[in-house]
Design goal:
It is built from ten helices and two strands. Helices cover 52% and strands 4% of the residues.
């Protein structure tokens, strides 16, 4: 992405990625894996795990789109899923532009995730709530330094988008979408967002099925081709990549 580079991110000591990792332990009760509330997380590890989570998010939304009939989603709700997919894909591509590599490229899910609307809504809300909390933790970290302040703003931009996903999936689950005055600041450190992903990575959780394969380039191209029709016509620019700052 023009104007933002892995070198500039590393120079500032930034850890962009931990932001998007999921918190499924809150609803499935799994123990932690892949991270243990470490201090001084290695940057490459963090962005790789973040890319893994973003890849999971695109896989998750694509499966919901493809399973819209089983979930009972209407046309407007499918459009929500497609726009959410595009946003998560944009986040993933940003991470990849910084040198991130997902640690796995296929996932496992609870058997009824894409056939039971209540399970889908609740699971997705947990994921998006964790995304928001982790990005806000990154805002706190980046906000400590003038050098990394542009990345703090970029993380706030992404957190705002993840919050819209959380609200929409609550609406899909017939719960009040705008039920809080503030986005939930649930994590102090980015590394605290490292969740219990193992069942989603290896299918070890009871009732998990798969693998569910991530989007192919044809899937990405197909949904990107619908962006204008969907109204996804202003994907925006990360603040850290802007060549001209707003007045």
């Amino acid at each position: 992405m023009q104007g933002i580079s892995r070198r500039s991110l590393l120079k500032g000591g930034a850890i962009l990625g931990g932001s998007a990792l999921l918190g499924f332990n809150q609803i499935f009760g799994f123990s932690r894996v892949l991270g243990q509330d470490m201090q001084d997380d290695d940057l490459q590890t963090i962005i790789n795990l973040a890319a893994t989570a973003e890849l999971f998010a695109t896989t998750h939304y694509l499966a919901a789109i493809n399973g819209a009939g089983d979930l009972g989603l209407n046309d407007a709700q499918v459009a929500y899923m497609k726009a959410g997919f595009l946003a998560e894909q944009d986040h993933l591509e940003l991470l990849q532009s910084l040198g991130a590599e997902p640690v796995v490229r296929e996932f496992y899910v609870p058997e009824t995730l894409f056939s039971d609307l209540a399970v889908f809504s609740a699971t997705t809300e947990v994921a998006e709530t964790t995304f928001v909390g982790a990005y806000l933790a990154a805002v706190r970290i980046f906000g400590k330094s003038e050098e990394t302040m542009p990345f703090a703003v970029t993380c706030a931009q992404i957190a705002a988008v993840e919050e819209t996903h959380r609200a929409l999936v609550r609406q899909i689950g017939m719960r009040l979408a705008n039920h809080t005055s503030y986005a939930q600041y649930t994590l102090r450190n980015v590394s605290s967002a490292v969740p219990v992903l193992q069942p989603f990575l290896d299918g070890s959780g009871e009732g998990f099925v798969g693998p569910v394969m991530p989007p192919a380039q044809a899937d990405i191209d197909r949904i990107r081709g619908e962006a204008e029709m969907l109204g996804y016509d202003n994907p925006g620019t990360p603040f850290a990549a802007m060549t001209e700052m707003p007045a």
